[in-house]
Amino acid sequence: MSTIELQEHPDLAVSRPYTNTELLSVVAARELAGRRVVFAGHGLPTLAVALAQQTVSPEVEIVYESGITGAHPQELPRAVSDSVLVSGAECVMGMPALFNYMLQGNRIEVGFLGAAQVDRYGSLNSSIIGSDVDAPAARLPGSGGAVEVMANCGEAFLVMRRHTARTFVERLDYCTSPSPHRAAEHATGPMPSGRGVTRVITDLGIMSREPPDEELRLTSIHPGVQVEEVRRATGWDLQIAADLVTTPEPTESELAILRELDHDRVYLR
After folding, report:
1. Which InterPro entries does UniProt cross-reference here (predicted)?
2. How confident is the model at residue 70 (pLDDT cuts 50, 70, 90)?
3. pLDDT tens column, 218-228
4. What is the pLDDT of residue 30?
5. Shortest CA distance to 120 belongs to which of 173, 182, 176?
6. Are 181 and 106 a contacting pair, CB within 8 Å?
7. Whose C-alpha in 141, 153, 198, 219 is 20 to 30 A from the C-alpha of 28?
């Protein structure tokens, strides 16, 4: 096993035989053990599901946000609408069927999401940076289907390449996808049927929460990372689980499968 210099996080001056993106993918795949139906976009979530299918959860099925389900691609797709997903797929749904039947029908166990900002209860901002909605410092892609995923999937996972206090904030600049906790606080309209964010996997560790009211807690810390590093990189007073563990390192077998899946390092950059 070759040694690769870990360069993704400046606080981690150590060498490991894997990169941070490989660690994130392996950890996310392990979290899918026992899950059956997963909703994901492209990137590390796609890679994590592909790895889970060959390791901890052979029966897990991915529903892509393009409406393709039961895909049997001969190679790793480079986008959710990649043609390699369509050939041989069990079903290709239109958007109404995807959202009305699959998501709102509560047929998805785990939905992968991303965000620019995350708060302690797992509410997400993917819309703007800055306090002035009319003139923000930056405009982001927005919700897409994220608010539907948050509200209707059994639970939501986040895979974040960088854990910083700019991302994990005390107060969101804008709430795109409210957690069940935040929705209950406002108590208007229908309440989410899903549990909201239950896992956040970052380059420093894993944060978990039990819905509806528990905050995200640090439950696992990656090898070589100190608890204080995670505290400094979190914008609120992060709770540390009493049974905090160290994340088991990726095995040679997991890394071999992962590198074969993404041999062009499309996502493992």
Report:
1. CoA_trans_fam_I (IPR004165), NagB/RpiA_transferase-like (IPR037171)
2. confident
3. 999 999 999 99
4. 97
5. 182
6. no
7. 141
Q: Which residues are catalytic?
A: 65
Q: What are the DSSP calls for the chain, one per residue?
A: ---EE--SSTT---EESS-HHHHHHHHHHHTTTT--EEEE-SSHHHHHHHHHHTTT-TT-EEEETTSEES---SS--SSTT-HHHHTT-SEE--HHIIIIIIITTT--SEEEE--SEE-TT--EE-SEESS-SSS-SEE----TTHHHHHHHSSEEEEE-S---TTTB-SS-SS-SB--HHHHHHH--SPPPSS--EEEEE-SSEEEE--TTTPPPEEEEE-TT--HHHHHHTSSS--EEEEEEEEPPPPPHHHHHHHHHHTTT-SS--
